[in-house]
Task: inverse folding
């Protein structure tokens, strides 16, 4: 969480401490979950017909509280509020909900469900998981590039070999890519794709087996390996990040100051004892 400088105005520190207090944050998490339930209820026409007005009122009240939270944090932090990516994420999610859902922007009404994603920012364990996923993106990019090469090579081979006999599956490179993606997911690949092709090309099983071994059992598992390695390789860094993001309460600040003073007193005593 954001940490104020020691010379920040007292009113800003009080607002920050209030908004980030455990009680307020737990209440915000409760509202996020409640809002998600209400948005689900609004998909039922019968429920909307019976209590649609009440649901809309509660939805607006929750949105008001979300907006008030962001306004208070912006008042507390000023422009530094936008230096925290998670705060920017919250700001965008809530801002989308504030845009009037007119006929031309009716899709924004459905995007209100994005408020549920605020749980990622409010639940520390979720935040660590997402941070780990984001840190794995460079490695995932390399794996994704590898699978693109495999898809392209396999797609060209399959289009040239099977395209004339099976134009729906392999008639063009785009059709072939979609078919290979189906094969990679192992969804009806045998009866739906491989066996019909093998009726005309008996040795086609070699192509499909090799593609599945490489694309599914090796490359896809590389995705999982990179993500798991990112989540587990540097727990110390994750712990350090959590401590840095944690905003100390006034009591914690006093305890830290007392520890510092005690440490300084110990050093003075040691120096006095060893002084000739």
Result:
């Amino acid at each position: 969480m954001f940490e104020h400088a020691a010379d920040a105005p007292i009113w800003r520190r009080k607002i920050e401490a209030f908004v980030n207090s455990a009680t307020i944050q737990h209440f915000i998490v409760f509202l996020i979950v409640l809002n998600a339930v209400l948005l689900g209820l609004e998909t039922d026409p019968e429920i909307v017909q019976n209590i649609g007005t009440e649901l809309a009122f509660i939805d607006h009240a929750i949105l008001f509280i979300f907006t008030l939270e962001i306004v208070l944090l912006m008042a507390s932090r000023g422009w530094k509020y936008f230096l925290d990516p998670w705060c920017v994420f919250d700001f965008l999610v809530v801002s989308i909900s504030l845009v009037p859902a007119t006929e031309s922007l009716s899709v924004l009404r459905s995007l209100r469900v994005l408020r549920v994603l605020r749980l990622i920012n409010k639940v520390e364990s979720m935040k660590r998981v997402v941070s780990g996923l984001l840190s794995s993106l460079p490695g995932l990019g390399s794996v994704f590039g590898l699978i693109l090469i495999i898809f392209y090579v396999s797609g060209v081979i399959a289009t040239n070999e099977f395209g004339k006999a099976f134009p729906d599956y392999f008639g063009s490179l785009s059709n072939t890519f979609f078919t290979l993606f189906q094969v990679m997911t192992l969804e009806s690949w045998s009866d739906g794709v491989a066996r019909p092709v093998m009726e005309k090309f008996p040795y086609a099983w070699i192509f499909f087996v090799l593609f599945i071994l490489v694309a599914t059992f090796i490359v896809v598992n590389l995705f999982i390996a990179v993500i798991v390695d990112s989540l587990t390789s540097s727990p110390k860094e994750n712990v350090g990040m959590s401590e840095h993001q944690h905003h100390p309460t006034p009591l914690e600040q006093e305890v830290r100051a007392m520890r510092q003073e005690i440490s300084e007193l110990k050093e003075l005593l040691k120096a006095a004892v060893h002084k000739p």
Remarks:
- The radius of gyration is 28 Å.
- The chain has two domains: 10-122, 137-232.
- The chain has 14 helices and no strands.
- The longest helix spans residues 45-77.
